[in-house]
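During the reporting period the student researcher (J.K.) took over the structure-prediction task from the postdoctoral fellow and processed the backlog of single-chain submissions. One of the processed entries is reproduced below for the supervisory committee.
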Amino acid sequence: QVQLVESGGGLVQAGGSLRLSCAASGSIFSINAMGWYRQAPGKQRELVAAINSGGSTNYADSVKGRFSIARDKAKNSVYLQMNSLKPEDTAVYYCTLSRGWVINQSGSWGQGTQVTVSS
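J.K. obtained the following structure tokens:
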């Protein structure tokens, strides 16, 4: 079983920055993908960014050039640097870890952290 603990959400003005952190513990597969999904009120959960054990990354088109994902394999942690935030980035952000090279929604999830961007 894998446990994920997120931190770093909060309230920020449009144009500002936030950094989300997620630490994983427990039985972690050596080949895995970690990433962030988000869910805004009334909307479906969507993938924001992901990174796998090999360092390959992928981003939602809406955040390319503004968000950056990184991981520290020694600490089993993943980070999401969010710059130039927009009100439409407001959502609950969930950290996830899944087995294999490609992230999916069948793995373990954190409790979520609220990000609110004011205009």
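The committee noted the following: The CA atoms of residues 16 and 116 lie 11 Å apart.
J.K. will present the remaining backlog at the next meeting.
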